[in-house]
Design brief:
6 strands; two-stranded antiparallel ribbon; SMCHD1; about 210 residues; 2 domains; alpha+beta; HATPase_C_sf; Heat Shock Protein 90; single chain
């Protein structure tokens, strides 16, 4: 790497966790992306890209964009799709010490790209690992277990309060990717974890699936 013998450096994960002798076996696994930095909090000189390779759950392939259950019940499926997307923001902001802000924007200006639905919140943010897992795993956030980092790490099922306040919408829902591809052809998630200086972005397209 061209590092001088008297130069200090650290190796970290994309979540800025320093690799040490104690956590090496836990953090360094096949396919993981690592940073070689002068310090843990060093600013990145330019954006880095990480390819996510995985075999999608068959339901992601077969059912993406389909809301046949709700349609068969005679209900308009669009509100369920939007509720699924808003649910992530409700969960992310549920422990905000201050104001919870969730905005829903419908973008139709062709000069800014294709029409889009944007859901913006001031929640805790997601790490790159959490974004990866949102793309890979098709599991309820209430049943996520195992040795991977959940996309709702530390999530506690809310107390019985009006469903519109507690992020319990998708307890019986159909999943974020299915909702995304019902509304459009691609998903772009941009997130900055509260404790990190890095901004993470995930792009998924129906064509890729």
């Amino acid at each position: 790497f061209g590092i001088a013998t008297d130069e200090n450096f650290v190796i970290t994960t994309t979540n800025r966790k320093e690799i040490t002798e104690d956590n090496f076996s836990e953090l360094v696994q096949d396919g993981v992306t690592l940073y070689l930095l002068q310090s843990v909090d060093q600013m990145l000189l330019l954006a880095t890209k990480e390819r996510i390779d995985f075999l999608p759950h068959y339901d992601t392939l077969v059912k993406s964009g389909m809301y046949e259950y709700y349609a068969s019940e005679g209900q308009n499926p669009l509100p369920f799709a939007l509720a699924e997307l808003i649910d992530n923001s409700l969960s992310a902001t549920s422990r905000n010490p201050g104001i919870r802000s969730i905005q829903i924007k419908l973008l139709f200006d062709d000069s800014q790209g294709k029409p889009a639905v944007a859901v913006i919140d001031n929640g805790s943010g997601m790490t790159s690992k959490q974004l990866n897992n949102w793309a890979v795993y098709r599991l309820s956030k209430f049943t996520r277990q195992g040795d991977f980092e959940s996309d709702h790490s530390g999530y506690v099922r809310p107390l019985p309060v009006p469903r519109s306040l507690n992020s319990d919408i998708s307890y019986f829902g159909v999943g974020g990717k299915q909702a995304v591809f019902f509304v459009g052809q691609s998903a772009r998630m941009i997130s900055k974890p509260a404790e990190s200086q890095d901004v993470h972005e995930l792009v998924l397209s129906k064509e890729d699936f």
